[in-house]
Amino acid sequence: MNKKHFTVLFVMAIIVFACKKGEPIVTQIEAFIGFQKPANFPDPVYNFANNKVTKEGFELGRSLFYEPRLSRNNTITCGSCHIQSSAFTQHGHDVSHGIDDRLGTRNSPPIMNLAWNKAFNWGGGVFDLDLQPIIPITTHEEMDENLENVYNKLRAMPKYTNMFKAAFGTEEINTARFMKALSQFMLMCISSNAKYDKVLRKEPGFSFTTEELEGYTIFKDKCGSCHKEPLFTDGSFRNNGLGISPVNDKGLYAATLVETDKYKFKVPSLRNLKYTAPFMHDGRFLSLNAVLEHYNSEIVATQNLDPLLNRSKLGIALSANDKTKIIAFLNTLNDENFINNKLLAEQ
C-alpha cells in the first residue's frame, strides 16, 4: 500500500531505545494525523476551519456513532443502518429498518467521502454535514428520539462527559459539540484505495485488464456525465426515469417545493457497489445488471426526466457486451481497505 496516497487515521512512530543490557527495545506509539486528502481527489467542500478533526474528537464521534442511547429505546445506533462491512449501508434491505423494526421509505445511503458532499439525503434538504444527524435521530421510522433526551442520557455517563472534555475542553454537551463530533468521525470515512485509485495514481503493480479498460471507456461515454470521477457522483439531483413509486416519493421537491424538482434524487457514488446492494433510492434493483437494463430499456418519461435520458431515444443504449464491460470496470471501485478499516469499527 502506498500510504502517501491513502487516507490514514493513525501512523505508528517507531522509537528504539536501549535497555540495561544494551538490547534494543522497539515501542510503537500512536500519532493521529487527522484528515488527509487523497492525492487523486479534489479539495473537500467541508469547512474544516470550523471543525478541525482531532484524535479526541474523532474518537468521541466514533463512540457516538455506535451509541444506542441516541435512539428512544436505546436499541438503534447510527451503525445499525450504516454497517461498515456494507460500506456503511444497510445491505440486503430495500428500505431502512429503524426502531421497533419500523420501515422507512428509502434505502440507507453510504457514509463515505462526505467531506466532498454539498447536500445530503436522497431528497436533499440538508446542506451541512454538522446538521445531518438531526434527521435520523428525530425521524419516527429511524431513531424516534429528541436531542435533549439524548444529551441527558449522555450527561449521566462519565464516559461521555470525560470524552467531551477531552475533545472540546469542557464537559458541557450541547448540539454544536455533539454534531461536530459525529462529523469528525464521518469525515474520516474515506474510500480512496480501490484498484481504480491505485491505477490512476500509477502505483506499481496495478493496471486495468483489457475488459476493465474497455469498460472504463464505455463508462466515461455513457455514464460519466452524472457519475463524475473520482468521486463517481456530481452531487446533483436528477430524475433518472424510475417512474412514480407506490409511496409517491417526490424526492427533492419535498425539501424545496419547487415544481421542477419533483422526482429528482441525489446521484449516488458508484464506489463500493459490491457491498451496497440493493440499488436506487428505494432499493428496487438487486443487481448491477438490473440497474444497467433500467437505463437501457426501462426509462419512464415522468415529469422532469433528466434531459440526458431523453435525447434521440429514451434511456442509454447498452448492449449485453457493454454491460459486462461496464460492470468489470465498476468492480475496480470496490475498496476492501475501507470496509475493513478497524479504526472505523465499533471499539
Automatic annotation (TrEMBL):
Cofactor note: Binds 2 heme groups.
Gene Ontology CC: one annotated term: periplasmic space
Cofactor(s) for this UniProt protein: heme
SUPFAM superfamilies: Cytochrome c (SSF46626)
This protein's record includes keyword DNA-binding: no
Sequence positions that bind heme c 2: 223, 226-227
Chain residues that bind heme c 1: 78, 81-82
GO-annotated molecular function: cytochrome-c peroxidase activity; electron transfer activity; heme binding; metal ion binding
This protein's UniProt keywords: Heme, Iron, Metal-binding, Oxidoreductase, Periplasm, Peroxidase, Signal
Compartments where located: Periplasm
Record note on modification: Binds 2 heme groups per subunit.
Every Cytochrome c domain range: 210-334
Main location group: periplasm
PANTHER family noted in UniProt: CYTOCHROME C PEROXIDASE-RELATED
Name by which UniProt lists this protein: Cytochrome-c peroxidase
